[in-house]
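go over both lines:
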Amino acid sequence: MAAALLVCAVMLLPLAYLIVRAAEADSSSWDLILRMRTVWLGLRSAGLALAVTLAGVAIGLPLAWLTTRTDLPFRRIWAVLVALPLVIPSYVGAFALLGSLGQGGMLAGVLERIGITSLPDITGYPGAFLALTLFTYPYIFLLVAAGIRGLDPSLEEASRSLGHGAWTTFRRVTLPLLKPSIAAGGLLVALYTLHDFGAVSLMRFPAFTQAIYLQYKGAFDRTPAAILSLMLVGLALIVLVMERRARGRARYYRSGAGTRRPVTPIALGRWKWPALAFCTTITLIAFVMPISVILFWLVRGIRVGTEVSVMWQAAGGSILVSAGAAVLAVIAGIPIAMLSARHRGGLVSTAEKLSYSGYALPGLVVALSFVFFAANFTPALYQSLPLVIVAYVVLFLPQASEPLRGALMQLGPRIEEAGRALGRRRLKVFTAIVAPLISRGLLVGGALVFLTAMKELPATLLLRPTGFETLATRVWTGASAGVYSKAAAPALMLIVICAIPLYLLVRRVEVAQLEVQEIEVKAE
C-alpha cells in the first residue's frame, strides 16, 4: 500500500497542475467550456473510443485464439505478424492511410488508369476509426494471447469430454475465463483512443484532445484547456468504473490441485482457409500497407536527391529513455496490480483509478505539468532525461499494470499462502514463486511501455534536454515541414527497432509458459 501510494503521488502531479490552472478560471472561461459544442466533443470522443474498443476486441480476440489454440498453419509466424501494427505510431499510420486510400493517394492513382476518378473521403470519423482500430487492436491481441496461454487446459478438456464442441467450449468456458485479459486490453484501447492526438488531427475528426491542443496552442490563457483536460479525466474515470463493474468479483484461477500442461491444438478443418484469409487481410491492411507508403516516400526522396542518413544517435536516445521507462513502469505497476487483484476497499479503488489519470491525458498536458513543477520546485530536473522517463511512466503506467493484474487474477492466492505458511517472507515468496508465475504479465507490460514510449512525441518535444533527439522527433521534424521523404527514413527505422523486441516478446511468452508449468509442478 505504501509503494502504491507513492506511485499515486507522482501520478497526481498532472491532476494537481490542472486543478491549479482550473482554479484560476473566471466566468468567461467556464462559459466558453460549458457550451453545447463541448458536450458534442465529449460524445464524439466517447463514441469513437467505444467503437474502436469493440472493433479491437472483434479483431484481437479471434486472432489470439487462432494463434494459440488451433492448428493454424505457421501460427507462430502469424502471432508475430498480426502484432506488428503495434510498432507503427498512430500519426504515421493515419498518414499512411491518407497516402494510400485518401484523395490523391496511391489507390486513387491506380484507379484513374481504369476510369475511376474519385474515391470516398476517409477523413473524419471513418478515417479516425480505421486508423485507431488498426494500430491499437494488438493491445487486446497480446493480452488475450497471454491470458489464453495462462489458462488451465483441463477445464476445456472437461467440456469437450462432456460432448461440447470447440465453439461451445470457447463460448461457455474459455471466453468467461478470459474476461480479465479482454477487459484489460479493451481498457487500454479505450483510454488510448481518448488521449490520442495524432490520428484524430490528421483525419480532421473533432475530439477532446484536438480541442485541448488548440486551446493550449492558440490561446494565451490556458485555463480553458485545463478545464477541458479535467473533463477528459472525468470521461476516463467513467470508463474505469464501467470496466471494474464488467470485471465483477468473479474468480479466474484454479481452486483445486493439478498442473497445467500443453493443450492439444484444435483442428480448424474447413475453417482453415477463412482463418488464413482473415490473418492475411489484417496483416496487409494494418502493416504491409503503411510500410509500403513509407517505402514509397523513402524511394521518392532518394530519387530527388534528399539526403537519407542512418540516425544512430536518435535511435540510441529512443532506446535509452524507452527502456528506462519500461523498467520503471513495471516496478511501479507491481504494487498497483497486486492491490487491484488481491484486495478490495475504497483506498484500493482510489489508488487504481489514480494510476490511470496520466494515461487518459494527452502527452502535451502531462508534459506541461512536469515543466511547471520542475521549473518551480526541482530546477535540477528541468529538461533532463530522468524527467522524460518519469513522464513516460505517468503516461503509460496502465500498460504495465494491466497485464500484471490479469496474470495475478489467474494465479490463485493459495500458492502465496503456502509460501507464507512455510515461514517465507512476503518478498521471498514474491521473488521465488509469484514473479516467475506472472512472468508473462511482466514481459507483456514492459514491452508495451517500451513500444509506446518509442512512439511518444509531445512529451518528448517539451521535456527533452537541448540537443537530445529521438526517432519520433525526427519523424515529426520531417512531417511537420511537409517533407515526407525526410520523415520516411526515421519512421522506417523506428518500426524496425520496435519490431525486434516485439518478435522476441511473442516468442518469449511461449517459453515463459513452459517455465511456469515446471514451477507449478515444483510448487505443488
Notes: Confidence is low (pLDDT under 50) at residues 255-259, 511-524. The chain is about 75% helix and 0% strand.
